[in-house]
Amino acid sequence: MPNKKHYNGFSLIEVLIALCLTAIILTEITETQLHSMQINQQAFYVGQATEQLEAMADIIQITQGDYAAFLSLWNQNNKILLPHGRGEVKNYGEQYKIYLFWHIGQSPLQQLELDAAI
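RE: above sequence
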C-alpha cells in the first residue's frame, strides 16, 4: 500500500507569490499617498499666496497707491509663508498688477497674479 502524505498549509511558492503581490500593492498605495501629499502641499501654498495677494491689494487700496513702505514687509512675509517666495507690484496708472512667485526644490517656478485698482 503506497504511503500517501497529506500536507496541510501553504507551499513555499504560494507564500512567495503572496508576498510579491503584497509588496506590489503596498508600493502602489505608497506612491498614491505621496502624490496626494504633494498635491495637498501645492494647494496649501496656492492658498497662502492668494491671501498674500489679497493683503497687498488691500494695502494698495487703503494707501491710495502709496504702498512702497509696506512692500519690504510684505516680501518678508512671502519668504516666511512660501518656499523662496517673493512678490512684485507693477503700477499702470490707477491699475496695479500684483505678482507672487515661489518654488519648491527643483520644481518649476510657480506664479500667481492679481489685478488691483485704487
